[in-house]
């Protein structure tokens, strides 16, 4: 099927010329160990630059040179100046460690009921139990879409010419219905189909120098999935998620457009067989930018597997850990993993 490009999308030549100037990118989806979700990472009362600096230092020490970081629209609505200042502070700390940043504007994963302020304590033994969606249920209120547009335009205008920001990921897993774990909007997928192209347009209207993307995640054949088509046709660089074995990962590559740079924005879940030793050599060979899920075990609790939502790990720790590279004190979970990352990024 012939690929279609949305208005304003970068040409293939521009995308590849931009990517050719970069090193091979290897990093993580980053939330400090002291934060259970995006709000706890960024709100003034729980923003922890000392922790961020320390944990990014551990990442840099093993050769990681990039991070993917989630923002939230409510933070902008409540305190745009403070939020902008904390993003600036984070970018300073990351840049000081030689780390570039992909910023994520919206996210459809986990809890759609989101509120500012102190966040609930993580549920014992449960994977990512307090992560929140953005915009969450505001997706169904078209009266709030102007506020969402203001957020996108404001953040992208503030950092769209900032060399510390490498890519804008406009929406993480936009059509994810979260496996029945939450009462989702009945028409969520239809609303996403309407709003997702507009979010790309709002982002482009702010004229960033960085490319735009939104990661294909569902595992279906791309052109049999309406949301994957929207993502592909609007993305300057192609991003995707894969938590499968190396063999299935390589098979997935056959189903992705290969004329543009590829960003693997989520991988590494040890239980189903997505590991550093299995995936990173392929990614290096194919020059695919790669971001594992999770860096330091903490309040996000992503060392627990997805099935912990049904069967919390109360009596014993999972063996192996699902995600995450370091214990909270900086000790590697597996010394051989960090040795591999050091070797392959050297």
Write a structural description.
The chain is α/β, with parallel strands linked by helices. It has one domain (12-345): TIM Barrel (Alpha-Beta Barrel). The chain has 10 helices and 8 strands. The protein has helices spanning 12-20, 38-42, 49-61, 73-96, 145-159, 188-205, 226-234, 246-253, 276-286, 335-345; strands at residues 26-29, 66-70, 100-107, 165-172, 212-213, 238-241, 262-267, 289-293. The protein has an 8-stranded parallel β-sheet. Helix 5 (145-159) links the parallel strand 3 and strand 4 (165-172). Helix 3 (49-61) packs across helix 4 and helix 9 packs parallel to helix 10 (335-345). The longest helix is centred in the N-terminal third of the chain and has 24 residues, at 73-96. It is globular. The model has no long low-confidence stretch (mean pLDDT 96). InterPro entries: GH (IPR017853). This is Cellulase family glycosylhydrolase.
Can you summarize this structure?
The chain is α/β, with parallel strands linked by helices and 346 residues long. It is built from 10 helices and 8 strands.
CATH fold type: TIM Barrel
Quickly give the CATH architecture. Alpha-Beta Barrel
Largest sheet: 8 strands, parallel
Shape call: globular
Strand order of the largest sheet: 5-4-3-2-1-8-7-6
CATH class: Alpha Beta
Number of helices: 10
Query: What proportion strand?
Result: 5-15%
Alpha-carbon Rg, integer: 19 Å
């Amino acid at each position: 099927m012939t690929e279609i490009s949305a208005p304003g999308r970068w040409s293939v030549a521009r995308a590849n010329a931009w990517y050719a100037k970069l090193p091979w990118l290897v990093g993580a989806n980053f939330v400090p160990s002291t934060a259970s979700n995006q709000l706890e990472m960024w709100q003034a009362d729980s923003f922890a630059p000392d922790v961020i600096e320390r944990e990014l230092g551990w990442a840099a020490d093993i050769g990681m040179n990039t991070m993917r970081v989630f923002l939230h629209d409510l933070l902008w609505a409540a305190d745009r100046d403070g939020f902008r200042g904390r993003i600036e502070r984070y970018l300073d700390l990351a840049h000081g460690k030689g780390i570039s940043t992909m910023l994520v504007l919206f996210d459809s994963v986990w809890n759609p009921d989101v509120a500012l302020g102190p966040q609930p304590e993580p549920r014992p033994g449960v994977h990512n139990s307090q992560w929140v969606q953005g915009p969450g249920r505001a997706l169904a209120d078209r009266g709030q879409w102007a506020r969402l547009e203001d957020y996108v335009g404001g953040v992208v205008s503030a950092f769209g010419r900032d060399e510390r920001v490498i890519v804008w990921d406009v929406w993480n897993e936009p059509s994810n219905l979260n496996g029945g774990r939450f009462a989702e909007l009945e028409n969520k997928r239809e609303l996403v189909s309407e709003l997702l192209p507009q979010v790309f347009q709002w982002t482009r209207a702010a004229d960033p120098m960085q490319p735009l993307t939104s990661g294909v995640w569902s595992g279906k054949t791309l052109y049999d999935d309406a949301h994957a088509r929207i993502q592909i046709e609007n993305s300057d660089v192609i991003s995707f998620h894969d938590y499968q074995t190396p063999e299935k990962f390589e098979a997935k590559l056959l189903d992705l457009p290969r004329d543009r740079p590829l960003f693997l924005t989520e991988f590494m879940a040890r239980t189903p067989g997505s590991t550093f030793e299995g995936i990173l050599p392929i990614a290096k060979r194919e020059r695919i930018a790669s971001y594992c899920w999770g860096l330091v075990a903490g309040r996000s609790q992503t060392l627990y597997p997805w099935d912990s939502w049904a069967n919390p790990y109360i009596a014993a720790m999972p063996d192996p850990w699902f995600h995450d590279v370091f214990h909270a004190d900086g000790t590697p979970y597996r010394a051989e993993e960090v040795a591999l990352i050091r070797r392959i990024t050297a």
